[in-house]
Structure formats: structure tokens, C-alpha cells
Amino acid sequence: MRSFRLERQLDLDPRRAALYRVAGALCALVLGALVLVVTGRNPAWILWQALDAIFGRQRGIEGVVLRAIPILMTALAVALSLRMRIWNIGSDGQFLAGAFAAVGVGINLDAPGWVMLLAMAAAGTLAGAVWILIPALARAYWGVNEIITTLLLNFVAVQLCAWAALGFWRDEGAWAIQSTEAIKDTLPKIPGTESLTIALLFPLVIAGALWWVFRSTRAGYEIDMIGGNPKAAAFAGINVPRRVVAVMLVTGAIAGLGGMIHLAGSPGAQQLNSGFSAQYGLSGFIVAAIAGGSFLGLVVGGFLIAGMFFSGLVLQTRGLSVYIILALYGIILIGVAVGEMAARYRLVRAESEVAARRST
Amino acid sequence: MTEGSAGPALEARGISKSFGGISALDGVDFDLIQGEVHALLGENGAGKTTLSNVLAGLYRADAGEVLVDGSPREFRTPSQAIAAGIGMVHQHFRLVEPMTVAENLHLGWEDTPKVCTRRALAARARRFMDEIGLQVDPTAYIWQLSVGEQQRVEILRVLARGARILILDEPTAVLTAQETTELFDVLRRLVNGGRSVVFISHKLKEVLDVSDRITVLRRGVKELTRPTEGATIPELALLMTGESDEINVTHRKVDGKIALEISKVTARNDRDLIALREVDLSVREGEILGIAGVSGNGQTELAEVLAGMRMTDHGSVHVAGQDLTNAPARVVIDHGVGHIPEDRIGMGMVLSASVEDNAVLRHYRREDFSTGFGLDRGAVTAFAERLVNVGRVQTRSLDATVGELSGGNQQRLIAHREAAVADRVMIASQPTRGLDVLAAQEVQSTLLDLRDGGCAILLISDDLDEILLMSDRVAVMYEGKVVGVFDSADADRDKIGILMGGHQDADSLR
Hey, is the C-beta of A352 within 8 angstroms of any chain B C-beta? Predict the structure, then answer.
């Protein structure tokens, strides 16, 4: 007796969709907890430890925020490209390119502090855009798949940073970890905090600006139309290739600026090495996927993932491998994807509905 | 299984089905007797396709039951329906183009040998074709076949799997007249051999030609079932549409200013072959110029050139005296040229976007909606609301995606949007193709209103009746050339038909 069936929903309520995505992520966490149980660990204790690590002291909350900033910047880059149904998988590379250019300016130029910061920000933004220039042109004018080109450039960026750290910008004074020299000028602190700088404002302002762009500007409308049907967009008189290039360059610029503000705004991150980005691009990608095109959701999701990330770092000291955190990321992403599909279907009681119809 | 009993081979009782709160079928009964062609007649959106999808196991009904040979059956997958002997041939073919006929026949079929050669597959295919009496070269690739042959492969595929009941969804929509006649012969042979056919169409004449019985659906409700014998076109048309008013068009000789002037335009198609040869045409304000011709003779390319979507090799296009040769789409729109595109879904709309966003897709740049960088959402909503009301677009809300709308409502939206764009010129490409009678009439009267308002209209249509009904002048295209231009008074159907067929004049036929 089959009394339940799935019915596809033609219209998708965005709130319902968001709810299902969050539910998917939660289910994934439960699944992760089960894995922990099976491997002989106590998930409740781990959860308690994680929450305590974050909320038990001010440094915990600030630690989460510090990690949220680069994650949000890369997530914004990915989310913007996704509005056009373009997959910028290379935000990690653009992030590193931005940091690379900023370090280059920071250790080689000599100027007053604020000039240095402006120059570094400009260099980082520009470098992020340059890093995606070739994938953007190739995609827009020759239809080359941007997923592959942007992804591959990530590895190039890591090697570029390694080369700088080991070679031409090497910090001669360092012994243990090979890094470039440290930049001297950092972003101003936010008063009343131990370690936070105005770097925090960047992702918040950019998220707000993008929300506004898509709510009430022509450019946002055009991007959404290109995302929906490029041929119809061309029919509407939009120069699609030019827009694709422009948007992709902006996504690269956001990620590049992210690299610069991490370098100049996060304590202890003033030197560049190949480990400068702790998978921020990957985390940002997951955040953008969870948010599903909503910039407000993206900010919330960014802090959540950063919380996981930070507690993961703390938990490493309690005997959990960082790979467990990465595995959890993967499970969450699958959970979100399943939730997104599930939101499109509704479970209907076939018999009762038929009965209801007959009685009316 | 009760073989050869008097009961219907396939029966549906009280079928109801709704999508997103909109009822597509409401308590519909239907029965198919063995050995008959039973036509399912109705406008687009009447529920024909929905009903046939329920019969074929593609949709599950919200209420009601399907009986095969008198016993209730519930299909959860199309393959279960096929196993029960019910096969469906869709309007849009589901063939794999780069594969051969024989390969397509065996695709996804349990009886296909697990290990076999191409030659063995071709031999098996040939055997089925001989058994069934339908021939297509089994080694040909699908893309090499004509549309009619592709349809034959679809029919063969279903029959080879043992279907006794064949459901054909709008099978003639894609066929030429010759192919249609051939299809009807095939269907006759099949029912004479004991199979049964459900034939879905909105073309009255075909239904009268091919069917034994007719069921008329209107807005998801069954109007009646009757024997074809004795049925008349006016009677069926009335049942189908519920309204009998014909559209009235008065033709005029217009001597307004020339709004659209095309001179010596030559252009290529997507395969880089010459598609337009030295085309000279002009349309005056307040005039409809109809382009008659068999599709594929350059009409598509002509429309694209005029919309700024295709480059010309040489020649010029002027709108109200302004040179718009090879101007980008944006400039063309800004000069008040509307365009109802032939490819509505691929080009005319963003299916995943809302009704509201689609309502301004082509003129959101205009001052009414735009200030600086901004898009005035309030103005957009107001415009969309007006468009939906005036254009009688049925939608559950302005936020609904246009993908949810029926084909007729999508085209109503496009027609009214383009009417808002078309201050000077309207290019209407196949504006009523595939629409039901009511929606087609509404689109046509939208064009006539535009004409009466002084807009110049270029109407491109495969449907010669439509061309003759609507046009003040008629131009005939053949192989990329304009081979004749007539005033509506001199536009003689036979003469135009001969030109469309590529003959210079009637004399050359003798």
C-alpha cells in the first residue's frame, strides 16, 4: 500500500527553499555526529568543546570573525558569478594573487601608512581581476569552460606564492617557516576589540552593495537575465560577452581585495607563504552554495562556516584531525544540495487527497 | 488478460490533475476501443497532453483511475505503461541524433541483446520493420532523417516494445502535407492490424480525415465524445473554443510614409551559407506586409537581421529614414522596432525569471523604468500588471516564473511586450504557431491594433491562411529571394502557392 508520493512543485518559495537548505545542512551535521560516534568519540562533548571554544572567551568570537572575513570575501566572489550561472572556482587563486600583489607593494614601497594601505588595496584588487582575466575572456568570447580554467589557476597562484616566499621576497630573518617579509602597515583596529580591524567592514559593505545592485539597478537585472537565458539577454540588447567579462573581473577583484585585507587586517597574517589561504576559497564556495544567491544568507552562512572552521582548529588540539572538518564540509555541501532538491518536491498523501477531492 | 472482449482496450474514469493549484483536467472520462483511431481534440491548454501523459503513465492523476482491458492499472513509470501495451509518441522526439536508427530502436529496451554488433542490431531492426510494415533505413543516423522519418522511428520504437495502444501527441505539427498523408496511411494500417490509436490534435480537418471517434476537451473538461461520421468543422470548432466569433480584418491600400526599408540585403545562415539574396522590401506606416513561404527559405534569417541579431553581407536596412544596417539589437530596440521571435522559449523569454522581469525584458532601458543606474521596480511592477490585464495573461502572480505559464499565455506576454516596444515597426515571426484558436486570435488582434495605430508590421508565417487573412500586401520568399509581391486584392492563393513551391509563374508548370 503506497499512500505517499512526491509531487514536484512548479513554483518555489524562496523562504521554503532557504529553510530546506538549512535543514539539509543540519541533517548533514547529525550525520557527521554519527560518524564521530562510530569512531568512538562523543559528539556532544565535541560540540560542547566547540561552543566553549567560540563563546567561552572574547578571543573565541573574534577568532571566528577573523576567519569569516576571508571566507565571506571569496564567497561573495563566487555568489556574484553564480548569479550569472558562471562558476568561479578560482576565488582561492584570486585571493592569493591579491595578497601577492599587496605584499609586493607593502614590502617594496615606502610611503605614509594610509598611502601604503590604499596602494596595497588597489594592487590586490587589480591582481585579483588580472588573475581571472584570461578565464573571463576565454569564457565570454570562445566559450571555454570557466570551471576548469579558474580552478587550474588556483594551483598556479599557490606556486607563485611559494616562489615569492622561498625566492625573491624571502624573509632572510625567518628560520622555521619560509615566508616573505612582513608588511609594516596594517589596517586600523576596531576600538574595543583585541584583534579585529576594519577589514570586517569590507565584506559587509560589499554584501550590502551587491544586495542593492540586484534589487534596484539595471546592471543587476541584466546579470540575472544573462544567468537565466543568455540568448534572450542578447535579444534584449545586452552585450552579453562584455557583461560576462565585466562581472567575472569584479568577482576576481573582490577575491583579490579579500587577499589584501586578510594580509593587512588579520593578526599574524602579514607575511605571505604558500599556506596563506587556509582553503578559504573552498569554504567560500560552500557558503555561496548554501546561500543560493542571497547575499544576506551568505553573510549568515559565512559566520557559521567560520565558526565550524575555528572550532575545528581548537578541536585539533583535542585530538581531532583537520580532515574530519573537511569531511564535514563535504557532507554539509551534499546536505544542502539534497535540501535544495527536496524543496522542489512535496510529500503528498495520495489516498487522503483523493478522498478529500471526492468529498468536495 | 481478457483478449478481444467487448470492453474498451483503455479507459480513463474521472481523471483530475492540477499543476500548482491550476486545474488541467477535471473529472475527464475517456475510452478507447480496440481497432479505432480516437481523436482527442482541443485547444492548447485544454488538457489533451496532460490526459495522454496520464494514460501513458508519465503523470499520476490526482483523482480517477486508468483501466487497461477492464482492470485498473497504476503506472509509476513509462516503462510499466509500455509493458501494459501503451506507447506514447511525443510531439518533441526523444531520439539520440548522433546514433543510428537501429541503435535508437534498441536504446533502453530490456530485449536488446547484452552483447551485439551494429549489424545484428540493424538486422533485428529490419525484422521489426517488416513485421510492423514501416520502413526506415536502420543504418541511417537520426540527424540524416527528415522529420517524418524521425517520427516513424519513434512509432517503431514504441511498437517494437509490443505496444497495442499508440498515443500520438500532435503528430502532424512538425510534418509537411505529404508526410501527414503518409502518417495517416500508417495509422490506418495499424488499426486494421488490431492496434488502437489515440490521436491528439487541434487541427479540425485532420481529425475528421483520420479518426473514427472524437473526444473534445475544453479547459480540462470533456465536452463530448462522438463518432467522426457526420461531424462538421463548424460544430467541432464551436465545441473546442466555445466562441464562434471570427476575427474580422479589413485590408487597405496604404500610402503612409515608408517605415521599414530593406534594400538588397544579403546574409548567411548559421552554416555560413547564403540565406538571403538581395532582398528588397518596404513596409509603410499602418500596413501589414505578410511574408509567405515554406519555412527554411530565409524568413528566420530575415527576421534576425532586422532584430539586430544577424550580420548582413551587404545591403541596407532603414527604419524611418535612419540607417540601422547591422545595428546591434540595443539600437534597433531604441528605434522602436518590436520583434515577436520565432524561437519564443530560446530567445523570447527568460523562463526562470518572473513574469514581471520578462514584461520589461526588451525596453527596461527606457526612461519609464530607468533612472541613472537604477531600475524603478515600482514602475516595472505597474507596467507588468497592466500588461497582464490588457493582454489577458493568465498567471497566478507577477512573481511566477514564465516557465509556469502555458504556451498561449507566454505568447500573449511576448506579443504585448513587443507591442510596447514597437513604436514604429513590428516584426512578427510565426506569431501564432502552435497556439490555440483563442490565443491566436488575441495575438492577431494585438497586431491589428498596432497596425491601426500606425505601426508598420512585417508578418512572417508558414500559415498561408494567416498571411492572407492579415496582410495588406503579401511578399513570397523562396530560397532567400523575394519572388513576388501582391496587394491583398490580387493575392491569389494558387498563385502564391506556386511561387512558394519555387516556380516562377503558373505557366511554367504546363
Answer: no
pLDDT band for B1, please (50, 70, 90 cuts): very low
Compute the nearest-CA separation of B298 from chain A (Å).
19
**Residue given cell 560552500 in the structure block:** A286
Interface of A with B in 1-60 (CB under 8 A): 5, 9-11
Q: Indicate if the pLDDT at residue A262 is higher than 90.
A: yes
Please answer yes or no on whether B357 and A354 come within 8 Å at the CB atom. Answer: no
> Between A333 and B129, where is the model more confident?
B129
Contacts with A233 from chain B: Cβ below 8 Å: 350
Bigger pLDDT: B472 vs A330:
B472
Query: A246 vs chain B: nearest CA distance in angstroms?
Result: 16
What mean pLDDT is reported for chain B? Answer: 87
Is B186 within a domain? yes
B318 & B274 share domain: yes
**Residues near B212 by beta carbon (within 8 Å), at least 6 away in sequence:** B36, B37, B38, B191, B227, B228
Q: How many CA atoms lie within 13 A of A352 on its CB side?
A: 6
Check whether residue B50 and residue B145 sit in a common domain. Answer: yes
pLDDT digits (tens, 9 = 90+) for A36-52: 788 787 888 877 887 88
Contact of B212 with B227, CB cutoff 8 Å? yes
Domain count across chain B? 2
Which secondary structure element, helix H or strand E, spans residue B317, and what is its range? strand B312-319
Question: Is residue B451 included in any domain, yes or no?
Answer: yes
Residues B151 and B218 in one domain: yes
Q: How close does chain A come to B343, measured CA to CA in Å?
A: 10
CATH number, domain containing residue B268? 3.40.50.300
The reply to whether B490 falls in a domain is: yes
Dihedral angle, C-alpha A138, A142, A145, A151, nearest 10 °: -10
Q: Are B165 and B32 in contact (CB under 8 A)?
A: yes
- B203 & B273 share domain: no
pLDDT at A115 over 50: yes
**Whether B20 and A234 lie within 8 Å, measured CB to CB:** no
Q: If you write DSSP's letter for every residue of A59-94 in order, what string do you get?
A: HHHHHHHHHHHHHHHHHHHHHHHHHTT---TTHHHH
Instruction: Determine contact, residues B485/B472, Cβ cutoff 8 Å.
Output: no
- Which chain B residues have a beta carbon less than 8 Å from that of A234? 309, 329
* Closest chain A C-alpha to B62 CA, distance in angstroms: 6
Q: Which of A215, A219, A358 sits opposite B373 (nearest CB)?
A: A219
- pTM for this predicted structure: 0.75
Weakest mean pLDDT among A163-172, A280-289, B358-367: A163-172
If pLDDT is split at 50, 70 and 90, which confidence band does B387 have? very high
% of chain B residues with pLDDT over 90:
46
Residue B244 pLDDT exceeds 60 = no
Provide the residue type at B459 as one letter: L
Domain, as residue range, for B270: 258-351+422-509
Residue B52 shares a structural domain with residue B81: yes
Mean pLDDT of B182-202: 90
Q: Express each pLDDT in B89-118 by its tens digit.
A: 887 788 888 899 999 988 878 788 888 888
Nearest to A95 by CA among A247, A276, A301, A308: A276
Q: Is residue B213 domain-shared with residue B266, that is, in the same domain? A: no
Domain limit, last residue, from B241, B275, B302: B241
User: Which residues of A are less than 8 Å from B309 in CB distance?
Assistant: 234-235
Q: Which residues of B touch A221 (CB under 8 A)?
A: 357, 364, 375
User: Is B434 inside a domain boundary?
Assistant: yes
Same domain, B235 and B305: no
B299 and B236 belong to one structural domain: no
Distance CA A246, CA A254 (A): 12
Domain endpoint, select from B179, B213, B241: B241
Residue A191 has pLDDT above 70, yes or no: yes
- Across chain A, mean pLDDT equals 86
